[in-house]
Prior knowledge:
Layout: E1 7-18, E2 21-32, E3 36-41, H1 47-54, E4 62-67, E5 70-71, H2 77-84, E6 87-90, H3 102-113, H4 118-131, H5 147-159, E7 165-169, H6 177-194, E8 197-201, H7 205-211, E9 214-219, E10 222-227, H8 229-233, H9 238-244
Parallel strand pairs: 3-8, 3-9, 6-7, 7-8
Antiparallel strand pairs: 1-2, 1-4, 4-5, 9-10
Helix pairs in contact: 3-4, 4-5, 6-7
The structure holds adenosine-5'-diphosphate (ADP) and magnesium ion (MG).
Adenosine-5'-diphosphate binds near residues 41 and 45.
Amino acid sequence: MNPDYSTAVSFQSVSKSFGAKEVLHQVSFNVAAGQALCILGRSGTGKSVTLRLTIALLRPDAGKIWIEQDEITTLKTEELSRVRRKIGFLFQDAALFDSFTLYENLALPLARLTNKSKEEIDSLVVKVLREVGLAADKEIMPSQLSGGMRKRAGLARALVLEPKILLADEPASGLDRITASEIDELLMQQKVERHMTLIVVTHDVHGARRVGDRFAILDKGHLVAYGTATEVESSDNDTARQLISLPC
Length: 248
Ligand SMILES: Nc1ncnc2c1ncn2[C@@H]1O[C@H](COP(=O)(O)OP(=O)(O)O)[C@@H](O)[C@H]1O
Ligand SMILES: [Mg+2]
C-alpha cells in the first residue's frame, strides 16, 4: 500500500539474496519525514545492503520500497534518476575522487546534474564546506584529509545536491569519540534545521541515541526489533537489547 505523505522511506517485506545466501528476510520499516532511523547490527547482517536498496543501487528479490510517493523497485532508469536526486549518500569510505580537489569534488556533481551557474555553484560549495567546517581546505586533495575531515568531506559531497533524504553508512566509524560526536552534531543539524530525513547505519550507540528517533536492529538479515530506544530496550530479543544499551 502507498504510505501516507508523512512517510519518507518505507520498506515493505523486502528480501534480498546473493546466490543461495539470503541477506535480508522480509524486512519492513517506515521512516517519517524529518526523522532519523538508526540501523544497528553486527557486521554482515545486511545494513549496507539496506542502504543500497534504498537508493536502488541494488534491487530486492521481493517486497516494495517507497521513497515518498514512488515505489522504486519497478521504476525505469529515467524515473529512478528523479527519485535518486532526493537522496544523498554518505558512503563508508566517503567516495571522493582522489584526483580532484575538495572544491572540485563538490562542484562537479552540481555542474553535471543541475543548471546552476558557475557563481551559484561556487557560493553553494563554499556554503556547504563552511557548514562542515572545511571552508579553509577547499583546495586540498582528498589524500591530505585526516579521517575525520574525510568523513566531513563525504558529508559535504552528499549534502551539496541538497537532498531531502540522507543515507549515512557508519559516518562515525574509525573516528575518536570527539570527532565522532562532531559528525553526529552535523547530522542532527541537517535533521533539525533542514527537516532532512536520515537513515544512519552505525555501531556507535552513543551517537545513535543522540541522532535517532527510531531504531532498527538487524540480525542475520532479520529485523529483530524496531521502535523507539525505550521500545527496543524492552524487546525480548537479546541482541537488540545489547545493541541499544549504553555501555556502563
Ligand atoms: N554485492 C554483493 N554480492 C554478494 N554478496 C554481498 C554483496 N553485498 C553484500 N553481500 C553480502 O551480504 C551480507 C551483508 O552485507 P552488508 O549489508 O554489507 O553487511 P553490514 O551489515 O556489515 O553492512 C554479507 O554477508 C555480504 O558478504
Ligand atoms: Mg556495512
